[in-house]
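quick one, 423 residues, struct below
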Amino acid sequence: MIQKYLLPMAALLLTASLSAQPLNRSTPDANKKSAEEAEKTNNPYAALEFYEKVYDDSKDKQIAAKIAMMNYQLRDYDRAEKGFAKLVLRDRKGEFGAYKYYYAMSLKYNGKYPEAIDAFTQFIAESTDQDMIAAAKREITGCELARKAKQPDNLLINNIGKKANSPQTESSPSVSGGDLYFSSMLGKEVVTLDGKQGDWYAKIVSASKSGNEFGEPKPVSELINREGWHQGNVSISPDGKTMYFTRVQLDNNGVGESKIFYALKGDEGWGAPQEATGINGEFISKHPCEGELFGEKVLFFVANMPGGKGGFDIYYAPKKAEGQFGLPVNLGEIINTAGEEASPFYRDGKLYFSTNGRPTIGGLDVFESQWNGSVWSDPKMMAPGVNSSVDDLYYVQTPDGMSGYLVSNRPGPNSLKSKTCCD
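---
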């Protein structure tokens, strides 16, 4: 199983889509005030629409910079690239030098690697921020890898079909007993939070294979999909008896709470979930996956608990009993970086995970590391094809026989995705 996530803001586990309501014509000052209020309440889409109206009236370059950065944060890299280009390529007074890094990143995300290298190089020559310079050098290495890398001829990648994929984002695929489990909002339209949006929460769904594709996904038990919460990051244990997932409560549009739950499968299906012990706390826990280390079952997961190597790190905790785990252990600097790690998956001694803390050809790329019984090998980036820069579900079979499902933002049958606020 290979999983890949692209994380815009807090690298969560699920995606909620938002948009502003139609706006009436108003004064520039009123629009700016409305934009600032929308920002304060974590509604970036409404804020962006108001700021665009402010710019239409004022042509203020500072507002243009804010719009470009908001588009970048919302992963609209085409608009971000155009916005940053107008600022940095005409910047004779050096007012927008810091934005050259994000202009270069937008070029990279749009697959314009030679242009991105030139932009990063110029940023390095002009910047005095040593941390940003180091980041730019890492990105240049990633761009150079992307220019040289080719997808192997015997790498099989197939989209699993229009029925399973929707215009919303599908995430965290896990297969068990011939059924594919994943998280989805099951919607075809952008959700407007206007009090009339109805049930817009992400749910754990399952789909069965029909021919070469999967059928319509259906929500699993209402016991799993709790009303008023987002469910995501589903993972089924190798024996098919335990489902792990996360429940997320938003605070405005930010993450208020994220904890790992588990449910056991009985004769009548999945039972009532319970919160896992030992791996939740006053921090965000997500991306659970059962594996094995030192001859015992463990749960790999991602958290931003204090003392980590970066923002989100990968941890493991020994399994003591169903839903009960021992003290979490950080996987260490071989795996974790000062950047973000996400979506661990373990199979037959190999750990697959995503990170943006290493040179990558996109944002969060998939890496693999081998466990030899005592230490992990240096992570190796997986081939182009697995790594790409629209989130559809794909079936993957690698040349070495590895197969599974991943989320990849390559063009697919439903690749025109709605805007997203969190993952």
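Helices lie at 28-40, 44-58, 61-73, 77-88, 100-109, 113-126, 130-148.
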